[in-house]
Structures are given as structure tokens and as C-alpha cells.
Amino acid sequence: MTMSELTLAPTIAAAPATVTEASNAPSLTFVEGERILCFHGPLLYEAKVLKTDPNAEGGPSYFIHYKGWNPKWDEWVPESRTLKHNEQNLKRQADLNSLNSKKKAQAAAAQQSTSASTAAGGADKKDESKKRARDATEKEEEYLKRPEVKIPIPESLKIQLVDDWENVTKNQKLVSLPRTPNVTQILKLFKESALKTVSNDPHQEDILEELVNGIKSYFDKALGNILLYRFERQQYVELKKKFGEKEMSDVYGAEHLLRLFVQLPQLIAHTNMDQETIITLKDHFVEFLKYMEANASQLFLQNYENATPTYISATKNLI
After folding, report:
1. How many beta carbons lie within 10 A of that of residue 237, not counting itself?
2. Coil, strand, or helix at residue 38?
3. Are 175 and 304 in contact (CB under 8 A)?
4. 36 touches 15 (CB < 8 A)
5. How many helices (H) and strands (E) does the chain have?
6. How far is Cα 181 from Cα 22, in angstroms, rounded to an integer?
7. What are phi and psi of 157, to 5 degrees?
8. At what angle do helices 233-243 and 202-226 cross, to 10 degrees?
9. What are phi and psi of 38, to 5 degrees?
10. At what angle do helices 202-226 and 183-195 cross, to 10 degrees?
């Protein structure tokens, strides 16, 4: 399976999450004792925040207890897995539960049909059906236990993430958009640079093509949901109205693209890629981040723009 063929998990469909690599403690979205909704696997569950850690590696984390669950399931979760406990997100929880129930019903119907066939075919086929059901259960458990992929971010780019976070959340500034180079152009430049080292190898060229297409696809699907700070959402709404169907990878630039690499480990964990593919992807991601680091002065903005009073007022009307 190629990266460009992957379907993002429900995490992508979640409400905006805070992306940060800041060493300074960012403001927390939730407080101790607050009721929240939290992703565990593909579903959302009601939970309670027991502890908070604003300085956790990768951004704010919360030690939560799932309502009605044994305390042994209490765990630290990143902010990207959490949602506000409100009417909109409760509806999202119900929709995910409904979808999951339909999938289980379909699986049960298929299993029942298989069981009927195996009963007619004898005991051996019945045992084979049980084995398939057992294998399916094991695969689901394996999915829930999959470790998160680690993508090392160079120190200079971590500093860039800190500065980016401070500019937007503390100083109420914005990235000037549209950006040049934009995400599409950056990926093209990286591909052209990388091709110089593969000596006209068609196989490597195909891999690079799939890589840049995959990153672009992830970016366009993730941007409006998990890559924006709350203060930026009004700008995003205005740009969507202005550019219509234009892909946001042709509008946004390196600042938001770098944030994607903070979230990619969690996104990849919700796919069915095998370990070998994940390792290969990780190596390519590392090379891409090295390219961004080496060309940072040409890719990243030096100065963000000040938000107008009208814009600041408009942001208060957004969730």
C-alpha cells in the first residue's frame, strides 16, 4: 500500500488540536477535574482529566480516567487525542459509535454466513472459521497496542516550532498567506534535490513521487482539523472563501507543513501499514526534515504579520 492510498483515522476528523514542540509551557486546553472526550483506538470515550503536563515532549499531555473503566486503563494522552465535552463532539462520538456498530454487524453477518457454510462442510471448516474470528480479534488488539512511530525533529526546527507557537498564540500574529514557496512548491523542490542523488533510478523516482504526493495529501486533509491554532481558524475560514476549491497546500507554507510532522506519528499509528513500510517512510521523513533544516532561511518566514483588531474580534466568535 502506498502512502497516497492511505485513509486517515478519525483523529483527522477531530476538532482542532494544539500542535507544539515548545520548551516554554503552553497554555493548557483542559484543567484537572474537567470532563472531556478522548480517542482510544477509533472511538471516542468520556473521560476525566486527573493530571496535566504542559511540558511533555511533543506538547501538552493529560493523565485521564475513562468513565466506567477500570483504573488500570488510566493513561497519559497527547492533546491531539482529546476533545471538548460539548454537544458538537458528543454528536461526533455518536456518529463514530454508529459507524463502528454497522461494521461489527456486517462482520457478524459475514461470520454467521461463513459458520453456516462450515457447518455444512464439516468440523474442519468450522474450526477454520473459528480461527479466522480469533485472528480478527488478535488483529484488533494488535492495532490498539501499536507503538507510536518516532520521527526525530532537528533541534533548529524545534526552535522554529517554538517561535511559531509564540508568534501565533502569545503575540497574536499570523503567517502572511498565500505563502511562497507554498507546500506544493516545497515538496517539488525537495523531490528535485533528492533526485540528484539517485542516479536516474526509476524505482527511487517512483518512491519519491509517492512520498511527496502522500505528504501533500496528508497536509490537505489535516490542515483544517489538527494543524491550526485556534487563533488561526478565522484566517483559514477567510482563505477558504477566497480561494474556493483551491488546495490549501497551494496556499500555506513551511510553517504549517512542519507542524504536520509533529502529528504524523499519531496519524501513521492509525493506519494498517506494516512495520517495514513504516521504517522506510520514517527514513524519508528524516531526509525531508533535513532538507527543511538546510534551507530554512528560504522556506520559513522571518516576520509574522500583526492581526488587526477586526480579526481579533472575529476570532472570538469561533470555537
Report:
1. 14
2. strand
3. yes
4. no
5. 10, 7
6. 25
7. -75, -30
8. 120
9. -135, 135
10. 160
pLDDT tens digits, 54-64: 888 777 899 99
HSE-up of 157 (CA within 13 Å, CB side)? 25
pLDDT at 145 over 70: no
- Asked if residue 234 lies in contact with residue 309, where contact means CB atoms within 8 angstroms, the answer is no
Q: Which three cell numbers stand for residue 274?
A: 506494516
Separation CA 136–CA 131 (nearest Å): 9
The grid cell for 114 is 461463513
What would the pLDDT profile of 175-187 be if each residue is shown by its tens digit?
A: 999 999 999 999 9
Is the pLDDT score of 30 beyond 80?
yes
Contact (CB, 8 A) for 251 and 239: yes
- For residue 36, list its beta bridge partners: 47, 84
Q: Are strands 35-40 and 75-78 parallel, antiparallel or unpaired?
A: unpaired
Measure Cα distances from 309 to 140, 173, 231, 315 in Å.
50, 11, 13, 10
Give CA angle at 102 (99, 106), nearest 5°: 140
Q: What are phi and psi of 77, to 5 degrees?
A: -130, 145
How far is residue 188's CA from residue 193's CA, in Å, rounded to a whole number? 9
Residue position matching grid coordinates 488540536: 17
Write the burial class of residue 70 (CB in 10 Å: 0-12 exposed, 13-18 middle, 19+ buried): exposed
CB-CB contact of 78 with 58 (8 Å): yes
